[in-house]
Fold:
Amino acid sequence: MSQIQNKQKIIVSYHDNLYIETTIPDDWNNDYIVINPNDISSFNYNPELHDIFPWGDLAYDTCAKQFNLPNKGFSKELSELCNDKYVTREKLDSLKDIPYTVCSNRVVNWSGDPNDKLIAKPVDGCGSRDLHIVKHGDILPDDDITYIIELYIDDKYHRATIDGYITNGQIGVLDIFDYNFYPNDPMKLTSMVYPSKFIDNQLIYDKYIEVVSELHEKTGCNNQIINIDIFIMDNEVKVMEINPRMGGNYLPIFEISTGYNPWKCHEAVYNGEIPVRTGKEHNGICKFTYLWTDSVYKYVDDQSSDYNMFSLLAGKDSYSQLYIYSETKSLEELDIIANNELTRLSKLH
Structure:
């Protein structure tokens, strides 16, 4: 990776520097700058001098549109495909295992059983925003949104997220985090845990390879990080959605838990190399509590106890994120600690 380490590293993200700096590699020696995606069009990018590292939906999509280097991790075609959930299912055979249709006139018109439970998602939505549980004949609330309507997958089935890569045509998985949701609000995320309880489920790896292989075939993307959200059913894995980047909401816990540094993963795949762990794996949990906070990031680091904890209060999204990891405690024990800390935080706000 020597050729990439001599270049100026440009991180494109709307996140605060503090959020990003939690995982900057030591050998970068502060030789990086962070720019907002809105400013990328005025940045004088030179591939001989710069390497671009996006974090988040807007960052990746902006870079892909600006540079369109499908063999270097920035595929405009891949970005556009993933940015329209209806088009994604239409174009990819590996995503046609969930019945779906499209709705652009607010009226849900379902050709299946009229009693089917359905979910309506904006085709270009992100962050689980503007989701609606509907049935045939319902009227959706927004005139200006085109929705994909999908058969609702029963809440008893587990949901997880996979980060992986394709480099020089070789596909691999970096991590699998489990998603947990509030029992009385199954579209509202309450926590993510690593490692997944399904870490040894070969069906997950087979599905990831199937989907990424088809993405490669349809768009030519290569040397690329790809994130996929999935449903884990009895003897089948089905895709919820695809993101042409690493998962965006758990950057600090990613390296702590998986042992992979996210920026080193990007460096490796850009050079056609397989990412390698640079640290140890830990049990990890990322708890979410939906609280109104101020507009700045607050950082708390507690190294005094037998578990490590830091919380990042993200005013932009109006919720606090609590990350806890440990070599010695089980995920069940960490979950109790996290819930107690969230109770304390909620009383402060």
Q: What stands out?
A: Residues 176 and 342 are 24 Å apart (CA to CA).
